[in-house]
Every structure is written in structure tokens, then in C-alpha cells.
Model the fold of this input.
Amino acid sequence: MSSVGVHPSAIEPNTQHELPTSDQFSSDELEDKGFPPQRHAGAVGLGPEYATTTSFPEKLQGLKDEIKGKISGKPELVEHGRERRTGELKRKERERADTQDPFATPDSG
Done:
């Protein structure tokens, strides 16, 4: 009877193999194994990289603002529309939100 590739508990009676106490790995252990760092807040797909590209309605709104600014002669509206259409506005808002510290000032409520 060969025991190559068979767990000892399958062969010997009254033998129990040790189970790991936790299936969870620390982030350092995962990075050591070659996995990328976990950057989502729980639900998969709803992390910091969710919806980073400009959506079609945002592009249309940006084009609409650009045209409206050109017709009315308002260069700031043209620039705002271009930023919205290219995604610069969303990037700036995301950077502003990342630099703000929500715990810097105490709530008055």
C-alpha cells in the first residue's frame, strides 16, 4: 500500500491533521506572495478606481458647456466644458477630496 501523495489522516486511524487557525492573510503576506495591495473598501468594484473615466453623459455635458461658452463668449465656460469633457474636472475633484482631511476639524453636530 503506497502513501505517496495521500494525507496521513486518510491512512492512519485516529489521526487528525492541523487546520490553520485563520484563512485570512495580512496584507504584507499577500504582497509577499505577489498579490497587488487591496485598495477597495469592501464591495468589489466600488473602490477608489471605480468610475475614474469620463462617462458618455459627462462628455456630452462638457461639449454642451463648451458650445454654450463659445456662443455666449464666456471663455471660463468653454474651459469648464473642456475640463469636464476630457475628465480633468473629475480628476481635480478627486485630488481635492483626497487632500482634504475629514478629521481635521471637529463636527459641530
